Amino acid sequence: MKHLNIMAYCLTGLFALTACESDRDDNPTIKQPTTFQLNISSSEVYDLEANSTIQWGCVAPDYGYSAPLTYSIQINKDDNWTEAEGDTPASYKTLETTYTSTTFDVKTEELNRSLILLNEWYDEATFPSTAEVYVRVQSTLSTTDAYKCYSETMKVNVKPYYTKVSTEPAKLYLVGNHQDWATDGTAPVIIASDEAGTTFSGYAQLNTEFKFMTTTSWNDPNYGGANGTLEQGGGNIAVPKPGFYQVDVNLSKMTYKLQACTWGVVGDATPGGWDSDIQLTYNEESKALEAKATLSGGEIKFRQDGAWSISLGGSLDALVLNGGNIAVNAGTYTIKLYLSDGTYHAELIPEE
């Protein structure tokens, strides 16, 4: 019996140790929280012009362990939060700055700009002296975009101020030795995909090093870095090898990604039909991806890396992601695809 009891105690200890091991901080069991509390005054009127920052905060949501979290502030006209669908934008705006603690020093200039864009307060004559805004905070695990959780919504009173706000998307210039470091506005451009101007994507022919510029002046914010991490004012970014790249930037997370890629033309108007691409080659003089090809009457599209995960269609002068097929007439053409000047467009120039 004593031997059995000793064995039982050992097994019990083993199970307890296994249970503890399964809940260690380096191997946690993640819980999905449903909501969390905000620490924002509902009675105070926040004067956005008189203060450079205002302090908001929250109680950390319970993920089951001490998780490193990233918080994003979102604002809305009311408590009806709807996501973007097709050409219809989301009902809310997400502020550019993210936070990793439960205390938020909110930049009033950023909040004011987002309020203007949200409410389309572009006319100074009708600009409100005070306004109500609905606020919530999104939390995510810092190591992944999964496990999103939204706080309670609070109605907050603010005193905004009028300023002219551009509705044009933000852009970054890729200045480097691929264009002799010229700052005359002719560098390749990538465009922001969000109104906050933090997430950018585009294409560029690169040589061996470059930097991101927010304007054509080195006096304004610019970004360098290494190994996918950005640093404001940092060193030149090394390119793995000269070539044509898809370039993605996230200024909230201070990250960048370079992915070498190819582009081609495909369709029933091409010799290879919908199965084989006419490969395009970058022309340094025209700043376009080009090919000379004989087409039959029919339809074409442009696609990246010979696959359909990224394609362009619609119309030649205004290409859109995953757009429709483009009708073409029979003939021999120089095909030019422009992806590096801030707009996606193409030309089919007939051979004379």
**Share in β-strands:** 35-45%
The level of helicity is under 10%
**Kindly, what is the distance between the CA atoms of the first and last residues, rounded to a whole number of angstroms?**
101 Å
DSSP helical segment count: 2
Tell me the overall shape: elongated
- Mean pLDDT equals 90
Q: Let me know the largest β-sheet.
A: 9 strands, antiparallel
Unreliable segments (pLDDT under 50, ≥5 consecutive)? 1-24
Number of strands: 28
Q: What order do the helices and strands follow?
A: HEEEEEEHEEEEEEEEEEEEEEEEEEEEEE
Radius of gyration, taken over Cα atoms and rounded to an integer in Å: 26 Å
Based on secondary structure, the structural category is mainly beta
Description:
The chain has helices at residues 2-22, 108-119; strands at 38-39, 45-47, 53-58, 69-76, 92-99, 103-107, 131-141, 149-150, 154-159, 171-176, 189-192, 199-206, 209-213, 222-226, 229-232, 237-238, 243-250, 255-260, 263-266, 278-279, 281-283, 288-295, 298-304, 311-315, 318-321, 326-328, 331-338, 345-350. It is mainly β and 352 residues long. The strands form five sheets. Strands 10, 11, 12, 13, 14, 15, 16, 17 and 18 form a nine-stranded antiparallel sheet that branches. Residues 1-24 have low confidence and may be disordered.
Write a concise synopsis of the structure shown:
The protein has 352 residues and is mainly beta. It has helices spanning 2-22, 108-119, and strands at residues 38-39, 45-47, 53-58, 69-76, 92-99, 103-107, 131-141, 149-150, 154-159, 171-176, 189-192, 199-206, 209-213, 222-226, 229-232, 237-238, 243-250, 255-260, 263-266, 278-279, 281-283, 288-295, 298-304, 311-315, 318-321, 326-328, 331-338, 345-350.
